[in-house]
Amino acid sequence: MNLHEYQGKEMLSSFGVRIQRGIVAQNAQEAVAAAKKLTEDTGTGWHVIKAQVHAGGRGKGGGVKIAKSLEEVERIAGEIIGMDLVTPQTSAEGKRVHQVLVAEDVYYPGDNEPEEYYMSVLLNRATGRNMIMYSTEGGMDIETVAEETPHLIFTEEIDPSVGMMPFQARRIAFNLGLSGAAFKEMTKFATALYTAYDKSDASLFEINPVLKTSDDKIMAVDAKVTMDENALYRHKDYVALRDLREENPIEVEAQEAGLNYVDLDGNVGCMVNGAGLAMATMDLIKQAGGEPANFLDVGGTADAARVEMAFELILRDPNVKAILINIFGGIVRCDRVAQGVIDAYKNMGNIDVPIIVRLQGTNADIAKELIDNSGLAVMSATEFQEAADKVHEVLS
Fold first, then answer.
1. Per-residue model confidence (pLDDT) at position 231
2. How far apart are CA 26 and CA 281, in angstroms?
3. How many CB atoms lie within 10 A of CB 185?
4. Is 10 annotated as catalytic?
5. What span, in angstroms and rounded, lies between the C-alpha atoms of 165 and 233?
6. Which residues sit in the known binding site for Mg(2+)?
7. Which among 18, 144, 152, 331 would be 20 to 30 A from 26, CA to CA?
8. What confidence category does residue 158 fall into, taking pLDDT thresholds of 50, 70 and 90?
9. What is the pLDDT of residues 219-240, one digit of tens each?
10. Phi and psi for 58 in degrees, rounded to 5?
11. 132, 94 in Cβ contact below 8 A?
12. Which residues contact 168 (CB under 8 A, 6 or more apart)?
């Protein structure tokens, strides 16, 4: 589950991480009121207006702008709210902006020049340990830094038995070239950031940039936060932070129906039970010359109602040219799945794309007989390769 920047910053602040302060606004009038409030509380003269969408690169698409007066706050907020923001991380249609974050200006003049760093906390799947990734090249895409200047990326792995140690926080500050007050500030910042990640059961905290202000304060100017949905039962208050407007509506509907669905860009719809089999089925489609249009796991109770719902979800994609149903009957009986497919097909009426059904496992022979004798335009298969050949055939 992704959070908006303002939500991520509020979470960070609750764990003692210094943040760029801001107030979220739903319209231009609220943005002006927020700017006035920030000026009273912080003394900031300029304000940063930031589109709140679940996508990076907002500045490149015109979603982050500086306002030097209240008139500009109102005008810029009015322009950003309601726009379809296109960034390198959105589709060509972009994402509709429903709200903006009005934030204080933290690039104020002082004794030193402000400096930007990159820092994230995530799981290193190769070692099974959390790690802090950081770089002196803040404000840039970390992928670009990794490609062009990989020696400027540092990592600090955390031993889960002891947690983050003080010497690791000091090493982070040292590798970033800090000294004096900024050094001490960075050790506090890194320690608090890791605590926030660990205690909130997040799967990603990315701060880009982390700013060293002109008076040596260290703060989060941005916050990309992804929560581990499997741990949300421990954090009921975080569930309320979910913004369904930012998510694929079909995926939301599938989740509410108890289906695991991920929308993709291909031409062959998949209906499978079990995540592992679903991944193998997607590989099968690729080998047959197609592209998977979705990941869809109907789970262990593939009855007629669930199969019909799965059909409806897949067929909403106009790019789907064929559907491959690949079910292994372990707990669920293949003949029941076959009957579910037949019933769903009849209930839905005209389905104008070819359907290949591979059922293997308990009562697979009975299931194949049901499909073959149904009189419907459904092709049955028993082997993986046979299913692949039929996918290739219908796409040719």
1. 92
2. 44
3. 19
4. no
5. 29
6. 208, 222
7. 18
8. very high
9. 999 999 999 988 999 999 999 9
10. -65, -35
11. no
12. 132, 156, 158, 190
Phi, then psi, of 240 in degrees rounded to 5: -70, -15
3-state secondary structure 160-199: CCCCCCHHHHHHHHHHCCCCHHHHHHHHHHHHHHHHHHHH
Binding-site residues for ATP sit at 50, 57-59, 106, 116
Strand, helix or coil for residue 393: helix
**For the segment 160-191, what is each residue's pLDDT rounded down to a tens digit?**
999 999 999 999 999 999 999 999 999 999 99
| Residues of each annotated binding site for substrate | 273, 330-332
Q: Do the beta carbons of residue 62 and residue 118 sit within 8 Å?
A: no
Work out the burial of residue 352: count CB atoms within 10 Å of its CB; fewer than 13 is exposed, 13-18 middle, 19 or more buried: exposed
Instruction: Quote the CA–CA distance of 220 and 16 in Å, as a whole number.
Output: 11
- Which amino acids are annotated as binding site, given as ranges? 50, 57-59, 106, 116, 208, 222, 273, 330-332
Q: Which residue has the tokens 């389905």?
A: 351
From the list 206, 238, 308, 345, the catalytic residue is: 206
To the nearest 10°, report the CA torsion of 263, 267, 273, 279. Answer: -80
Residue 206 designated active-site:
yes
Structural domains of the chain, ranges and CATH numbers in brackets: 1-19+107-245 (3.30.470.20), 21-105 (3.30.1490.20), 249-395 (3.40.50.261)
Residue with the bigger pLDDT between 217 and 57: it is 217
Please state, for a pLDDT cut of 70, what percent of the chain lies above it: 98
- Nearest of 183, 161, 180, 159 to residue 171 by alpha carbon: 183
Rounded Cα distance, 259 and 303, in Å: 12
Q: The pTM is what? A: 0.81
Going from the C-alpha of 261 to that of each of 294, 311, 326, the distances in angstroms are 7, 12, 15
Q: What is the DSSP letter of 234?
A: G
**Identity (one letter) of the amino acid at 347?**
N
Catalytic residue among 5, 6, 115, 118: 118
Q: How far apart are CA 243 and CA 97, in angstroms?
A: 12
